[in-house]
Amino acid sequence: MKRVVLLLICCLTSTLLSAQSLNIRSVQDVFRPNIVLRTHWLPAQAFDHAPNTKFGVSAISLETTIPLKGKLGIALSMDKLRDWKALKGWKKLTDFPLLLSGYQLFWTIGGGTRSLLINTEAQNPQTLQLTTGLLGVHSQPRYALLFYSLHLNISEDVNTFSQLSPHLNAIVGRVHFKRLPFIYYYGIWMHYGDQQFLPVPFVGANMRLAPHWDLQVVLPLQIKLTYAKSKNLRPSVAIGIDGFWTGLENTQASWLPASSEERLYLTTNYLKAVASAEYRIGKRARAQLFVGTNFRHRTVFRAGSEQLDTFTPNMGMFISTSFQTNLGSKSFLRGLLERLEWR
Questions:
Q1: Dist CA 230 CA 234 (whole Å)
Q2: Cα distance between residue 270 and residue 265, in whole Å
Q3: Which SS3 state, helix, strand or coil, does residue 121 take?
């Protein structure tokens, strides 16, 4: 494989809740310095039990990934080399005659703004997002990688920024390269914020189904099928989970649940079905377009740990875009993946 699609699924860009939203990225996106610009638009949809009140989202964010420190060691296994010479080819990475060791440490930082599109008498709430954290990748015996990350995320209404409540995301997992083009990974993601702790174990695999067709499964997050014949244009279809959280000013508007608290906490999540296309612009840039629909949408308002009310917006369409430009030289791990020609 020349590109490992979504190798470190849950630890990139704050991983599962990067910048306060679910965001699965490719390993290729972080193994060299880069800047990523994203937009998202979900038109306002009526609540099922409040048809005169609608809920939508418009967002834009900018994020960068910077390699901080890394080391790579390569040794030759003579025993494996003798066995390997007797073969016409090899399929298992554990048969490869090179012994690799090393690590890489990355820093991610980003920010953005999100407007909640509420069709009410009140002004639409404006929220700011900030995220920063560290991501580490360490080589393991028998062609495996240990990865981990710790990120601090903030998402807050501009009117309640003095009362903001930071959230923490942590990831620990392991990736195994067994038989090309098949890899699998597993781990646990942990989230803490607004007096709530949520641990989520995950397991996933990338595999070649047929020539030019790649399947990626990450449970419980996403299933994605990609047509990878062209090097420049790659369409995909996927089904998965998405959502975000934010602090919100309690304006006592009619659409908000009754509470004496000045600050409320909103979480929204939904299942989504998405069609996307990725187009590579030269060697350093790529653009992506996502068009999809959300269903099983659920929006919850809380005051502290107390759940005030739950709304279920109707199904609607959304559009997202992403533009990435790579900066500077490659990190050691990205260069290693290219030398092994993993797609």
A1: 6
A2: 17
A3: coil
For 81, the enclosing helix (H) or strand (E) is: helix 78-85
Instruction: Report the residue count for the chain.
Output: 343
Q: Where are the domains of the chain?
A: 15-339
- Going from the C-alpha of 49 to that of each of 122, 130, 184, 257, 312, the distances in angstroms are 19, 33, 43, 13, 8
Helix extents (H) in 139-252: none
This prediction has a pTM of 0.78
Task: Determine contact, residues 313/205, Cβ cutoff 8 Å.
Answer: no
Going through 19-143 in order, the beta strands assigned E by DSSP cover 34-47, 50-76, 98-118, 126-140
Per-residue pLDDT tens for 25-44?
444 444 567 899 999 998 88
What percent of the chain clears pLDDT 70, i.e. is strictly above it? 72
Dist CA 57 CA 242 (whole Å): 13
The third-level CATH classification (topology) of the domain covering 15-339 is Lipocalin (2.40.128)
Helices (H) and strands (E) in the chain, counts: 2, 15
Q: Are 57 and 40 in contact (CB under 8 A)?
A: yes
Distance between CA atoms of residues 305 and 261, nearest Å: 12
